[in-house]
Amino acid sequence: MKKRELRSLVAARETKSPMKTRLSSGSPTSVLPSQQSAGRRRNTPKKLIPENGVDSGAKKLTKTTVDSYKIPGSRNVVKVGDCVLIRAPQRVESPYVARIEKIEQIPASDKVKTVVKLRWFYHPEETVCGRRPFHGEQELCKSDHFDSQDADCIQGKCKVYTFEDYCMLKEVDKHDYFWRFEYQAASQTLSPDSVDVYCICEMPYNPDHFMVQCEMCSDWFHPSCVKLSQEQVATMEAYEASMTSQRCVKAIGP
C-alpha cells in the first residue's frame, strides 16, 4: 500500500463550483473529437467458446449459470459484479480490466468450460482520443463493449471506483482503478464531453498530482503553476496549510 500524495477536490466542490471546459486535442472550447488519431487497438483474448453455445460440430450445448468462479492457482473467487484483470495477448501490455456480468459453464468435449460475460474498461490510450496529461496512472474509461471470454483469461481481482470515490481514498493499491468517462466503442466517443478544470492552466484534475488551495478564492493550483518551491510545498503538506495566489494578491492591492 502507498500513501496518496494529493488533496481531494471533492470537498472543495461543495464550497465553490470549478470552471468547466469542453475537451479537445487543442482548443479548450471545442468538443471531444470523435475521429482523431486512433488509439491503441484492443485485441481481446481469443474466445475459446463460441457465444452462440454451439461447438465446431454444430452440436447444441447446454449453458448453466453459476454464481462464482475460483481462479486456478489462487484462493481468489470472483462473482458477478466483481472487476477483474484479464491477461492481455501481448505480455508487455498492461492487463485489461473488465467487470463480470455473467458466469456460465458449458460442456466441452473433455471437460466443462467456464465462460464469463464481461463489460470492458478501456485504458485512455486505447480510446480514439488517447492518453492526456490529466489522465491519472490508474484511470480507465467505462465502455459499452461487452463480450464473452474463457474464464482462464482471468489473472486476478481488482477494484474500479468512480472518480469521486477514488479521490476520497486515503491509500491506494496497484490494483485500484477509477473512471470518470464512458466510452462508446462503436462510435468512438467519450461522455461527458466537458469536465471541471482547475488552476491557471485550466486543466482537469489529475489525482496523481498534488494541488494547493488559495485561501482567498478557494481555487486549486498546481505548485509549479504558481511558482511554489518543493520546500514550500513540503511545508504546506506537513502543516496542511493553504496559500494566497498571486491573482488574489493583485486583486486585493497594497
From TrEMBL:
Molecular functions per Gene Ontology: chromatin binding; zinc ion binding
Residue ranges of domain BAH in the record: 76-194
Lineage top rank: taxon: Eukaryota
InterPro entries documented for this protein: BAH_dom, BAH_sf, Znf_FYVE_PHD, Znf_PHD, Znf_PHD-finger, Znf_RING/FYVE/PHD
Polar residues compositional bias, start-end: 22-38
Pfam family, one: BAH
SMART domains reported for this sequence: BAH, PHD
Region (Disordered): 1-60
Keywords: Metal-binding, Zinc, Zinc-finger
Protein name: BAH domain-containing protein
Lineage: Eukaryota, Viridiplantae, Streptophyta, Embryophyta, Marchantiophyta
